[in-house]
């Protein structure tokens, strides 16, 4: 019995040979008071054990996959996480927080097994929804994350970035938040000059700008990102980098 209720084999995780009890894939719901009773002709005996679960690093039981599709259909991206304490799941698109809208909703709930089910539901996907999605499950022990692309066919569309913050002496990474697929080239500029301008700067194939050992006097300022596709379709957005 668990918490006074008889346990039954059959859910795939609980097995018993009459002498011992085995639980597979231990989850938060398995914590509690377990009892075993031995019955004889004239008497019986009862044994009791308390099962407590310590803190555990979050793990992802389910991860969404990369998709490539035309604009229009509904799309759902899902991550299922478990851990103790119960983790919270957050989402980013190309490194920026997701912008909720009537078309895009982020939600999560905890099921009976203690798993956190988090999802991004897009009612009618458009070009601007394309990019690298990341889900991160975090609790007091640590965090784990997963990322994959949602490719939506169409001309480039760089989303607004506004102002971002870097820390002097540390590495800074920013990804050009572009929708549309396929993309042939992504370029970064500062003051009208194409990057990189020094060995501290790198522009990766996926459109990320990496600045090592950030220096306020040199690296702070106004930048821009331009995404290009075939047939001369381009999209550009500015971003201001402040250095603390």
> Count of helices?
1
Straight-line N-to-C gap:
58 Å
- What is the radius of gyration computed over CA atoms, rounded to a whole number of angstroms? 25 Å
Query: In one word, what is the shape?
Result: elongated
Strand content: over 45%
Helix content: under 10%
Give the SSE order as H and E letters: EEEEEEEEEEEEEEEEEEEEEHEE
Structural class: mainly beta
Largest β-sheet summary: 5 strands, mixed
Strand tally: 23
Mean pLDDT: 92
Assembly state: single chain
Strand order of the largest sheet: 6-13-12-8-9
- Poorly predicted runs are none
Q: What do these coordinates show?
A:
InterPro entries: Ig-like_dom, Ig-like_dom_sf, Ig-like_fold, Ig_I-set, Ig_sub, Ig_sub2. It comes from Meganyctiphanes norvegica. Keywords: Cell adhesion, Disulfide bond, Immunoglobulin domain, Membrane, Repeat, Signal, Transmembrane, Transmembrane helix. It is found in: Membrane. GO terms for molecular function: cell-cell adhesion mediator activity. The chain is mainly β and 244 residues long. Helix content is 2%, strand content 55%. It is built from 1 helix and 23 strands. The protein has one helix at 216-219; strands at 14-16, 21-23, 32-39, 44-51, 56-62, 67-69, 75-84, 88-93, 96-97, 104-110, 116-122, 131-138, 143-152, 154-158, 162-166, 172-175, 178-181, 185-190, 193-194, 201-203, 208-211, 221-228, 234-243. It has a 5-stranded mixed beta sheet, with no helix packed on it. It has a 5-stranded mixed beta sheet with strand order 15-23-22-18-19. The protein has a 4-stranded antiparallel beta sheet with strand order 5-7-11-10, with no helix packed on it. The mean pLDDT is 92.
């Amino acid at each position: 019995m668990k918490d006074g209720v008889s346990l039954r084999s059959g859910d795939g995780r609980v097995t018993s040979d009459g002498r011992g009890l085995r639980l597979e894939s231990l989850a938060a719901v398995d914590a509690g008071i377990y009892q075993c009773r031995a019955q004889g002709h004239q008497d019986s005996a009862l044994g009791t054990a308390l099962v407590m679960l310590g803190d555990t690093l979050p793990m992802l039981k389910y991860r969404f996959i990369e998709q490539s599709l035309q604009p229009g259909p509904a799309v759902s991206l899902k991550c299922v996480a478990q851990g103790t304490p119960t983790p919270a799941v957050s989402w980013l698109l190309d490194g920026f927080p997701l912008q909720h809208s009537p078309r895009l909703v982020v939600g999560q709930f905890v099921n009976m097994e203690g798993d956190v089910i988090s999802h991004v539901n897009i009612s009618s996907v458009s070009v601007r929804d394309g990019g690298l999605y990341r889900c991160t499950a975090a609790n007091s022990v640590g965090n784990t994350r997963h990322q994959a692309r949602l490719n939506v066919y169409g001309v480039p569309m760089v989303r607004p970035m506004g102002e971002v913050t870097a820390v002097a002496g540390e590495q800074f990474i920013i990804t050009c938040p572009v929708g549309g697929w396929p993309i042939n080239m992504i370029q970064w500029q500062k003051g009208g000059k194409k990057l990189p301008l020094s060995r501290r700067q790198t522009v990766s194939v996926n459109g990320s700008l990496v600045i090592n050992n950030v220096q306020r006097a040199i690296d702070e300022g106004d930048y821009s990102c331009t995404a290009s596709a075939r047939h001369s379709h381009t999209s550009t957005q500015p971003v201001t980098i402040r250095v603390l």
